[in-house]
Design brief:
With 613 residues, the protein is an alpha+beta fold. It has three domains: 86 residues, no CATH class; 196 residues, no CATH class; 162 residues, no CATH class. The protein has 14 helices and 21 strands. The N terminus is likely disordered.
């Protein structure tokens, strides 16, 4: 029994008893929630609770526990409960015990970041977020916003519609025939066909793709198409654009188109850049490339290439033959003969590449030229394509080079009456531009020639930052100046090229080839010589060469030819070095040219460092 103070009232004693019961109940609840409850926990009794009895855990025979005398602060300390005893709680407290709730399991939510707005989302919500926030809304097809279209076959309801609003876009075939017995509405695009099948299964039979919807704004078309003439086809055979067997196939295709009641070919002018020609060609067989009985053939006037979905890029087919037949009749100016030059053991000849006809070597113009035409070509390059002593900064440090190198000349410089030059002829399409950091491949080089004097012009424009060596290897002016500085600092060209290869990771041409290209660059440079003897000036009477192992060689005296009888010992130094420079330039056209072609007399050599001396 707890000791009571006589000064405490009965109400206060009852209140203290209630507080003790609450403390025991809290202790009981905490022991159930914490399995590691320490058995030696002490219980703070309320201050000076009078006449209050509690069931203590120790296994004492008495049911009451005498607490020590109350402290001055009216607080009583109860003895600690034994570990093996069971606490006796009031019945009213046991009835109100609520079992603890189960622990909450927190699942890890996989968060992702939207690639468009950088918003953090749940992985499951990303797809819906992209559809709602970042999917472009396609505008409706209206009179102001629709795909360009053109009528191809008025009787059968065949139209050509551009594939998409993005330009340039190729045209596709669409059928919309709402009259007669065989009514049909179909688009040849795979995605449109899938959408229409899905709409039909969903009972949305009025669904139309954007291509079909745009036909409501198609302008009226002519009902009559011009038929292709057999005389034009015969002219193409005579000019060897293709053979007789191709002519027979084209005529058979025309008869099949007439029986089907559809035009054989039709020019489509609603899409594509101006340099491309599109033609819709009839195809009687339904295949993956002709779902609606027609094929779209394209012709690139810049690259001179044909494309048909039924054949490979460089493979011929009946649709390409019909398209050529149509364009030859309507726009014959597109069919000028393009001559192509291919390297073959140092000599490149013009040849005509005609499908179905035997290749015949054309007489007249050869590249590179020979004889007098070659000498005149080298002289023209030397006198008209000189590089200045100080090159412009923009030409040296340029990093963008043209992919097609065409001579800019339009008229012949040698003819007095301004004779017009020929069309550009392809020399090669496998040239390389070698720069400090890269080797650019796939460069096309062209040439022109004069039909009157036969002078040949090749690309030799230093203003583009390029030096043309042999039409296959071209050096950037930056690399040429770098090689000049390395040679002036006594570094070998081979070591320099090896260092550039390791730095850029590119495979450069051989060091000997680059050295020869650099020599032609120096031969075309307009050098300003400033060397002069302090005593004799620019014209010394005697020049003494010091002993040097690289400049002295063994040579029998009998092999030295005597000068001619009329030789007075005077030689034009400027003329001599000019002939030497032209001989170096000619190495880019032919492997080796005798020096007699330019009048160089090896028996008389000028021991000078330049033409100024």
């Amino acid at each position: 029994m707890y000791a009571t103070s006589p000064s405490i009232s009965h109400a206060e004693s009852a209140q203290a008893e209630v507080e003790v019961i609450k403390d025991q109940f809290k202790l009981h609840i905490s022991s159930h929630q914490s399995p590691d409850f320490a058995p030696a926990t002490t219980t703070q009794c309320p201050p000076s609770a009078p006449a209050t009895t509690t069931q203590c855990p120790p296994p004492a025979p008495a049911t009451t526990t005498q607490c020590p005398p109350p402290a001055p602060a009216t607080t009583t300390q109860c003895p600690p409960p034994a570990p093996a005893t069971t606490k006796q709680c009031p019945a009213s407290a046991d009835a109100s015990v609520v079992p603890p709730p189960p622990p909450l399991i927190c699942k890890n939510r996989e968060s992702v970041v939207c690639p468009h707005c950088a918003q953090i989302l749940n992985r499951r919500n990303l797809r819906v977020h992209l559809q709602r926030r970042h999917t472009p809304i396609k505008p409706d097809i209206t009179a102001q916003h629709h795909l360009n279209c053109q009528c191809i076959d008025f009787d059968n309801g065949v139209f050509a519609v551009v594939k998409s609003f993005a330009t340039p876009s190729t045209p596709v075939h669409v059928i919309k025939r709402t009259w007669g017995q065989n009514q049909k509405t179909q688009c040849e695009m795979d995605i449109c066909k899938i959408n229409m099948d899905c709409a039909e299964r969903s009972n949305l039979r009025t669904f139309e793709c954007p291509h079909i919807q745009s036909l409501s704004y198609c302008p009226p078309a002519a009902q009559i198409h011009s038929a292709l003439s057999e005389e034009v086809l015969q002219q193409m055979v005579e000019e060897k654009w293709f053979g007789q067997d191709k002519k027979d196939r084209c005529l058979a295709q025309q008869r099949a188109a007439v029986e089907a009641g559809t035009p054989l070919s039709c020019v489509v002018s609603v899409s594509g850049p101006p340099s491309k020609k599109y033609l819709s060609v009839f195809e009687p067989t339904v295949a993956y490339y002709s779902r609606l009985g027609r094929v779209m053939v394209s012709f690139d006037t810049k690259k001179i290439t044909w494309h048909c979905p039924c054949a490979k890029p460089r493979q011929s087919c009946i649709h390409k033959y019909v398209a050529k037949w149509h364009l030859f009749q309507t726009d014959q100016g597109l069919f000028r003969k393009t001559r192509c030059l291919e390297a073959d053991k140092g000599t490149m000849l013009f040849s005509e590449n005609i499908e179905g006809a035997a290749e015949e070597e054309e007489e007249g113009v050869h590249y590179p030229p020979t004889g007098k035409i070659l000498v005149n070509m080298v002289k023209d390059i030397y006198h008209n394509k000189k590089l200045p002593a100080v090159l412009p900064h923009d030409a040296v440090h340029t990093s963008s080079f043209p992919s097609a190198l065409i001579p800019p000349e339009t008229f012949c410089r040698a003819c007095p009456d301004y004779t017009m030059l020929s069309e550009p002829a392809l020399i090669t399409s496998k040239a390389k531009i070698v720069s400090m950091t890269d080797v650019i491949e796939g460069i096309s080089v062209y040439s022109k020639w004069c039909s009157r004097c036969g002078l040949v012009y090749r690309y030799q424009e230093w203003s583009d930052g390029i030096h043309n060596f042999d039409d296959l290897t071209l050096l950037s002016l930056h690399l040429c100046l770098f090689l000049r500085n390395t040679l002036q600092t006594h570094q070998a060209v081979g070591s320099v090229i090896e260092a550039l290869e390791k730095t850029s990771g590119k495979l450069y041409p051989s060091a000997q080839r680059i050295l020869q290209a650099y020599l032609t660059f120096e031969a075309l440079c307009d050098h300003s010589y400033t060397f002069a003897c302090v005593s004799c000036g620019y014209h010394p009477v005697t020049v003494v060469m010091d002993l040097h192992k690289k400049g002295v060689f063994s040579m029998p005296v009998s092999s030295i030819e005597e000068p001619p009888a009329d030789f007075d010992g005077k030689v034009d130094a400027e003329e001599f070095w000019e002939k030497v420079a032209m001989e170096v330039i000619s190495r880019g056209l032919v492997p080796r040219l005798p020096s007699q072609q330019f009048g160089i007399d090896c028996g008389i050599f000028i021991l000078m460092v330049g033409p100024t001396l």
